[in-house]
Amino acid sequence: MEWFHAVVLGVLQGLTEFLPISSSAHLRIYPELFGWEDPGAAFTAVTQIGTESAVILYFARDIGRIVSAWFRSLGSSSGGRRRRATYDPQDARMGWFVIIGTIPIGALGYLLKDVIEDDFRSLWIIATTLVVLGVILGVADRVGRKERTAADLTYKDAVLIGCAQALALIPGVSRSGASISMGLFLGLDRRAAARFAFLLAIPAVLGSGIFEWPSAMEEGSVYGAGPTILATIVAFVVGFGVIAWLMSWLEKRSFVPFIVYRIALGLFTFAMLATGTWSA
Predict the structure, then answer these.
(1) Is 16 helix (H, G, I), strand (E, B) or coil?
(2) What share of the chain is helix, strand, coil (3-state, %, to 5)?
(3) DSSP letter (8 states) at residue 223
(4) Residue 148: in which H helix or E strand, if any?
(5) How far does Cα 108 stand from its chain's mean position?
(6) How far is 96 from 246, CA to CA, in rounded Å?
(7) Who contacts 236 (Cβ-Cβ below 8 Å, separation ≥6)?
(8) Which residues cross the membrane (predicted)?
(9) How far is 9 from 14, CA to CA, in rounded Å?
(10) Rounded to the nearest 5 degrees, what angle is found at the Cα of 175, between the Cα atoms of 239 and 67?
(11) Which of 50, 89, 119, 239 is 20 to 30 A from 12 in CA distance terms?
(12) What is the spatial distance between Cα 52 and Cα 30, in angstroms, rounded to a whole number?
């Protein structure tokens, strides 16, 4: 059965990683709903390698251009105008934005590792963050000016969005949801906020997945190496389709359906805990 569970959880990870509804919350809540064992933080972190690989593939051209421009910018100070003309300064700045925005979640993730893997996985906390961040996303989507594009990003924006992303260390917050909410508060349009959120997540998620890889692969883990790798592959395939769909959706539609779903799932979880049906 563990292979079947792994496929289901891989699909769940792929479906929920990029939507602002929290993949970590779903990988904690749905096993509880089905009566399965909690797959744990290590399993979640490794399967996210699959979804972030989908981001890399989907934005491959943008990422290649950003990485190239960033490296070229490092030597531009000695190359004068001629060397600076060989890359787009905006792409180079985007590279710096991603690096700077990754620092908060990297530092806090290292410092709070034990708490993240234990106390933060309480269903009471997850239910609370689902509802609270749902409300925050709703407010951001409502009041955000949505006038700025990716070209208007600044270093201050990168720091603030990076700090918002760090909140996703708490299951239920949603990495994309927190980053997008801050982007909307800063006046970015929905598509620009989502695009930067996805790019910003790459180093943090890959770093976390690589760090947790040994724990997820060891014999005593919930699913073991084979099922975990299968779930990661499934998450990659499903996640790629979800990115393409979401980027198209955001061109004309709002985050309202995801906000309603988050709050409903959070309230449902509260009800299951309050009645004693589930244990936190």
Answers:
(1) helix
(2) 80, 0, 20
(3) S
(4) none
(5) 15
(6) 26
(7) 14, 50, 51, 53, 54
(8) 92-111, 123-140, 192-211, 223-247, 259-278
(9) 9
(10) 75
(11) 119
(12) 22
Among 24-38, 68-82, 205-219, name the one with the lowest average pLDDT: 68-82
Structure tokens that stand for 198 in this block:
């996805």
- Helix H, strand E, coil C: the string for 24-50 is HHHHHHHHHHHCCCCCHHHHHHHHHHH
Give tens-digit pLDDT for 134-173: 999 999 999 998 999 999 999 999 999 999 999 999 989 9
Beta bridge partners of 188: 148
Q: What is the DSSP letter of 251?
A: T
Cα 54 versus chain centre, distance: 12
pLDDT given for residue 6 in this prediction: 93
> What is the Cα–Cα distance from 213 to 195, expressed in whole angstroms?
27
* Residue owning tokens 């959706």: 249
Residue 161, both tokens: 């969005």
Q: Quote the CA–CA distance of 207 and 107 in Å, as a whole number.
A: 12
Structure tokens at 162: 């990076």
Q: Which residue has the tokens 């349009």?
A: 189
Indicate the pTM of the whole model: 0.90
